[in-house]
Amino acid sequence: MRASYENLNLILRGLIAIIVGLSLFVFQEWVIIFFTQVIVAFLYINGGAKFVQVVMWQRSNRRLTEIMMQLFVASAHLMVASWLLLEQDFTTVFLVKSIGYYQILMALINLFSFSLMVKDDAGNRVDVLIRALIHLGFGLSSLILPTAINSTLNRVGWYFILLGLASIMDGRELSDKATYRSGRSRRWRITAPIWFTLLLPDSTIQKFNQYFTNKELDAQQFVQQNREVYVNYDPLALEVFIHVGKEGFNRVGHVDISYQDKVYSYGNHDIESRQLFDLIGDGVLFVVDKQKYIEYCMQEGSTVMVYGIHLSNLQKIALEAELAAIKKDTMVWHLTTDAQRHDYIGRMQLATQAQLYKFKRGKFKTYFVMGTNCVLLADQVIGTSGMDILALNGILTPGSYLAYFERESMKKGSFISAKFVINEGIYQEKHIANQ
């Protein structure tokens, strides 16, 4: 039932995106003005409703702080709506400039990744440079060309059309008539801008945690279904773990892979090498027993989303070859300072006896949160199964991976054979039941 709903939802969203894209070709700025007017109407209606709510609250003896906050929000809605109404022409210019600055930012990120890959003598770096130059060219055209508005809106139109076609293809693959083709070749995927999925793992896990404490029927049904899947789960050879930290860049999320009961995790784990507000550092790979790692995550109060992936024998051989190729570029790393021992990596190794490695060469030698991150390594390994998460912007985040796995898990015959959430409570339940 849920798959059918998602099927229709994806197809409908795809059709809407295509209509928006075609409208941008034909009507150009009028489309932006139309959507601006829709937003203005929404803000006026919502702001007015909040003012009415304030009046109702005064009669029900609500606290003054609540009334003042609601009054502020209502006023902000009306002020923004009035400004947009008076400056409708400016909204088009603002949108075009924002797209230009976004693409300049993507160019700088890719250029920085390219410079790190040159320093580390990594292969396939020309692709990163080409992406950077394309972003730079488009970004500058949106900022300085006399035809910036028309060219940018045409580009956005193409983006919406391609995004819509991708959504329709995904919707078709969710239908009962579609079947998953094992071992297919990878395809490039049109994805939403990274900001839309950046904090998706954090918000998703918060929602899951609320389910576990919510007494409403829907929440309890989810908890019960999740518990049944986890308790009856027969571990597969390949699993993907997605979880988040509590602060800083850790809230963006982290991706680990588990193969044959060994977890492989890559990250910026050397506190002594971190630079640029922890954006870069020496890339560290640790390999640890899966059961010990999950136990440690539970002790740390983490909530972990698990996706079990079915592999054919040929896919297993390809995956093992990729893991061997990655480990060939590593060397054993030992903690040498108190700061390292007291940091996450030291505490985790003490609890799990994990093996630690640094890279001697290659693109993973230097970790970069927006480039060579945990998702890129996981994707390189499990990409041998033909998963098509490859992003045209060249940047993979835990959020984009989570969105991909959620969508894939609903396809008929998907390679994702199981998915569930583990937190300390249900982990302890299964542990006690198995004793």
UniProtKB/TrEMBL annotation:
UniProt entry keywords in alphabetical sequence: Membrane, Transmembrane, Transmembrane helix
Superkingdom as given in the UniProt entry: Bacteria
Transmembrane intervals: 7-26, 32-55, 67-86, 98-116, 128-150
Name of protein: DUF308 domain-containing protein
Native species: Fundicoccus ignavus
